[in-house]
């Protein structure tokens, strides 16, 4: 009887070791995200996916926006992050602070965050879970994935549905007029930075007296 193993091409021990190392690294990366002790909320624990037009804020910017959101939401406040996962992750690092947060995001990798994750596609701005009540958030932070009026307009529908009033929008400087038109927000002095430099000048817009000026 022939040995069944004969048909299987044998990898050289070097290739095999390299392959095992690669899989091990991959497992560790995935495993770290779920295991205890790893900060699953830290920026970069989920890598940005450019095909989804994702660009994470620098650590400093994410912290600054998270602090602003906490202040604006007030004690026991509710914060919604619409397509702004790096701010969400920063908010989750602020343990013990008195607020709650939801993330509305197209990228299903963020479902690791459990019930706080709500799948969101700006093309269907009001296709939201029933338990997400209108005007139930003290502040909405949004970063529409594309610099187009259509994307802003649709995201604006979602923002207006969710917020009790306060809006913090991050988008390109070129969107200033549209942002005012669709959301009544004005540009702040604060300039958000990204972990990788973007070609487009990026700005923050608010409709309340914020700490970003």
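^ Assign residues to that structure.
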């Amino acid at each position: 009887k022939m040995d069944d193993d004969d048909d299987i091409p044998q990898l050289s021990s070097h290739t095999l070791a390299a392959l095992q190392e690669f899989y091990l690294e991959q497992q560790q990366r995935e495993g770290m995200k779920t295991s205890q002790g790893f900060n699953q909320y830290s920026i970069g624990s989920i890598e940005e996916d450019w095909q989804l037009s994702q660009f994470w804020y620098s650590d400093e910017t994410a912290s600054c926006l998270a602090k602003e959101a906490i202040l604006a939401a007030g004690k026991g406040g509710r914060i919604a992050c619409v397509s702004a996962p790096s701010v969400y992750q920063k908010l989750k690092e602020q343990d013990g602070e008195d607020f709650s947060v939801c993330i509305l995001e197209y990228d299903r990798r963020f479902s690791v965050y459990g019930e706080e994750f709500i799948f969101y596609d700006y093309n269907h701005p009001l296709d939201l879970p029933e338990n997400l009540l209108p005007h139930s958030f003290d502040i909405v932070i949004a970063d529409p994935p594309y610099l187009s009026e259509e994307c802003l307009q649709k995201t604006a529908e979602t923002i207006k549905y969710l917020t009790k009033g306060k809006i913090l929008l991050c988008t390109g400087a070129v969107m200033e007029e549209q942002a005012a038109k669709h959301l009544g927000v004005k540009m702040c002095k604060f300039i958000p930075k990204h972990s990788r430099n973007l070609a487009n000048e990026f700005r923050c817009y608010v409709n309340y007296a914020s700490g970003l000026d």
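Residues 13-34 form the longest helix (22 residues).
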